[in-house]
Amino acid sequence: MRLDKFLSNMGAGTRSEVKQLLKKNAVMVNGKKEKQSKRQINPEADEISVNGEVIAYIDKIYLMLNKPAGYVSAVEDAEHNTVISLIEQYQYLDLFPVGRLDKDTEGLLLITNDGQFNHDVMSPNKHVSKVYQVEAAQPVTQDDVQRFKEGIELSDGKVKPAKLEITEDPQIVFVTIHEGRYHQVKRMFHAIDNEVTKLKRVKIGNLKLDDNLLKGEYRELTETELELVKS
Ligand code: URA
């Protein structure tokens, strides 16, 4: 990789700022000053520093965001705030959300720059489960549990069997689904003559939303958590 590309990709500055840094002798490769922007480096093996500070190489990144309501799951949007705008760091890594939550939905949203990971989590063939906490307009019944188990019929076809768990409060339930159709949970509740009044995703695969993250906060996934997503 070219040195100037490495520096701008890692957030050291824009292409022209990087040019200036090189010109001012601020950049070192393996302890030696380097002025050549086209110098080829190996990001895995070479140590690059700017003004004495070593630049850590980040290739793929995986973040867990506690999405607040009011943000759209997109990279850019002309009208609304996007979930990507909540991530102050790593903007230079071409981040995008893994799938979508509706604007008014809260909770666990993964953010990455890894297209293959996105595919592995979102592909319907991979059967990665998603758990949502639902606040419903009407109490949920055992009959509803059975109907979800059998597969609810929606306008775009029958959905796979879903698990419905009623809590002490029958208007607060957990639903586990295995697809990611448009407005799926809201439409499933509509189909049983109920309505979702609040929706929060709490789990993807075996990865739970970290309770310590306030709305709008995010953090990197650990290696173990990364495995939990797909298991
Ligand atoms: N189902 C919905 O209806 N909305 C979401 O945001 C996610 C699942």
Task: Give a short overview.
This protein is α+β, with helices and mostly antiparallel strands. The protein has helices at residues 3-9, 15-23, 115-122, 142-150, 184-191, 223-230, and strands at 27-29, 32-33, 48-50, 53-54, 62-67, 96-97, 106-112, 130-136, 153-154, 157-158, 163-166, 172-177, 196-204, 207-208, 218-220. It is 21% helix and 26% strand.
Q: What is the topological layout?
A:
Elements: H1 3-9, H2 15-23, E1 27-29, E2 32-33, E3 48-50, E4 53-54, E5 62-67, E6 96-97, E7 106-112, H3 115-122, E8 130-136, H4 142-150, E9 153-154, E10 157-158, E11 163-166, E12 172-177, H5 184-191, E13 196-204, E14 207-208, E15 218-220, H6 223-230
Parallel strand pairs: 7-13
Antiparallel strand pairs: 1-2, 1-3, 3-4, 5-7, 5-15, 6-7, 8-12, 8-13, 9-10, 11-12, 13-14
Helix pairs in contact: 1-2
Bound molecules: uracil.
Residues 101-102, 105, 183-186, 199 line the site of uracil (URA).
